[in-house]
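Note to self: keep these together.
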Amino acid sequence: YSFMAGPDPRQVWTQDQPSVDLQSFDDSDLTGVRLGVFLPWFNHASVDIVQSCNQMLDSFKSLGATVQEIDIPDLDEIRMAHAVSFVTELLTSLKTNFKPFRQPLGLDALVNLTLAQQFKGDDYVKAQRVRAQLIRKMSQIFQNVDAVVTPSTARTAPPIPPDALKKGESDLSTLTELMRYAPQANLGGFPAISFPVGYDAQGLPVGMQLMGRPWEESLLLRLAYTSERFFARHPPMMRFSLLPN
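Structure:
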């Protein structure tokens, strides 16, 4: 992060970025750190995920952090605006050379891109209005909290059907669960980090996500690093060592 962030003399639009500061990276005293949780959204995940994330919140509180409830309105509108923006911008990036990509792309990607062609200009404009409202609302929230806490996903990793390896898979229900907590940071442009905090009953990893203010990645990295002292990693069920024994 410290190598990639900050001003780049070759790119004019990066000159206003603040310098990177990681001096407090290993400071585990979280006194004064305020974490915000929108409970209806936070709890809209599987039982194992919510339990693991609550345990990590308790661990952060034991180091001095405070947790307070917040409200993030219009979750469904934000989700739709994110979907419209994402697929429209993806299609635009491929528009000039879409035909050559048809063969290499999976059927699932082709379905999404074909649907994106149905959106009109006013759909995209309306999505950007929602984006602007989201940025304003999140900026207000970050006046009272330093980070917003959610699970990384609403469910752990699903099994891949055998035929999906060749043909791809279009499963909007599963995709919605996996993407439930992504639109706010992705659409609004806020920094976010995901890190492991536990395992579900099947031994699959559970993640927690933190969203922060622009240019305050250092706090997110500090919290994620601090979480490692409370999380005991298990070897993956399938593991291939790249190092000699």
